Amino acid sequence: MELQFLGTGAGMPSKQRNTSALVVKLMQERGTFWLFDCGEATQHQMLHTTLKPRKLEKIFITHMHGDHIFGLPGLLGSRSFLDGKEPLTIYGPVGIKEWVITTIRLSRTVLQYQLNIIEITEGVIFEDEQFSIEAKLLDHVMPCFGFRVLQKPLPPVLLIEKAQQLGVPKGPMLAKLKNGHDVVLDNGQTVYSQDVTADTVKGFSLAILGDTRFCQASIELSKDVDIVIHEATFDAGTEDLAKPYGHATITQAAQVAKESGAKHLIVQHISARFLPSEVEKLRKQGLSVFPSITVAEDFAEFELIQDELTQIYK
Ligand SMILES: [Zn+2]
Ligand SMILES: [Zn+2]
User: Fold this and answer.
1) Which ligand is nearest to the CA of 65?
2) Which positions are annotated as active-site residues?
3) How far is the CA of 63 from the centre of ligand 2 (A)?
4) How would you classify residue 95: left for phi > 0, otherwise alpha for psi between -120 and 50, otherwise beta?
5) Cα(246)–Cα(250) distance, integer angstroms
6) Distance 303 CA to ligand 2 centre (A)
């Protein structure tokens, strides 16, 4: 899994930061990628990356503010032009369906693929054998969701050489061992599954939170996750200013990461008020509360291997 930020700005685009869009790349896991929010010109940002719109499988929308959805119609249309044939599903708050369908209809946009739009409520909004995604309402000036993305434990890996050393022949016995069953060889000897399989590897976990004030729901969604992605529209000490706008400060974002027991925090939704030279100051304010903080820039790309978060593109 890799994360790539396509837009990290708040409210409207600036030269440094486009509006919200975050990609969760699952090329190894399922050959696709997922998009969280789709600010205006998200498809333009994608042109500067290796991402192919036809590989886009799911879009999760936190809330209906323009800086989180105005890129949708263009991207949906281009995906069709660019040979996207596989179904695409959008998950978002009430209103997303009417908005997307109306825009597509009035602009006479023709989609060559099946578009599903699911208006969500709190709870598990998606689950399959690999992943589960839970949504919870945060505390913004309109209904806004945060998402907890959990990858299920990976299937155990069979240590083939070890099995062969113990005399297990090629064939169905290997499959049985891999699936956790012990087998008895022709010579009467038992081979135990646990002796020839590596421990199950735990999956990754993310909390991807939309615009919000500091709130308990953020902490619950972020409980023990590998990475929390939180907004930081304001800097430390301006909590009273942030509150009426439904936003949080960098220290409040750090507080969420700390109280939830998360391993890493990446902040985004950075106001254009902050000059690029002030970003490090912003990060340091958060560091006084939580030790692992990165302020994401547009196109920043991260990789999580075991518990280690590495920035692979700045
Ligand atoms: Zn916003
Ligand atoms: Zn908003």
Assistant:
1) 2
2) 67
3) 7
4) left
5) 14
6) 27
